[in-house]
Amino acid sequence: MDFIDYLDSRPIYEQIASRYKQLILTGVLSPNEKLPSVRKLAMELSTNPNTVQKAYAMLEREGYLYSVKGRGNFVRENDTLIDQKKDELKGKMKKLIKEIQDLGLDPQELFTAALEEAEEDDRD
Questions:
Q1: Would the CA dihedral through 108, 113, 114, 115 be positive or negative?
Q2: How far apart are CA 13 and CA 46, in angstroms?
Q3: Where is the HTH gntR-type domain (predicted)?
Q4: Angle, vertex CA 7, rays to CA 54 and CA 46, nearest 5
Q5: CA distance 20 to 55
């Protein structure tokens, strides 16, 4: 599992939570699917169980998971998660477009170039 990047400045629990968000939003993890136990994931990642517990708690607060006492953590069935992510990305894009325009550049031109580069990266 490539959950942890030690060169990343974010705390490990945020990296774990971010990776699980990605897996949930892309459908790799299905609704009601059980996640590894805190101890098991901590052993796999060679990290402290408290770090994994903090990541799971964060995911639960944000609506990605639910926990069943004595059974574990499960992926929450929630269609609004993708809509929330779209809104978050749209906000980031609006800020970026404003910054591009403030520099006197054409946002469409930069977007097209970035999209082409991303497609090339996908082919490699």
A1: positive
A2: 13
A3: 10-78
A4: 50
A5: 9
Q: Which amino acid is at 75?
A: V
pLDDT value for 78: 74
Q: What's at 91, amino acid-wise?
A: G
Q: Which amino acid is at 121?
A: D
Residues 6+ apart with CB under 8 A from 13: 51, 52, 54, 55, 58
Query: Hey, what amino acid is at 18?
Result: S
- Of the chain, the percentage scoring pLDDT greater than 90 comes to 69
Q: Is the pLDDT of residue 1 over 70?
A: no
| Confidence (pTM) | 0.71
Asked if 74 contacts 95 with a C-beta cutoff of 8 angstroms, the reply is no
Residue 108 and residue 48: Cα distance in Å, rounded?
45
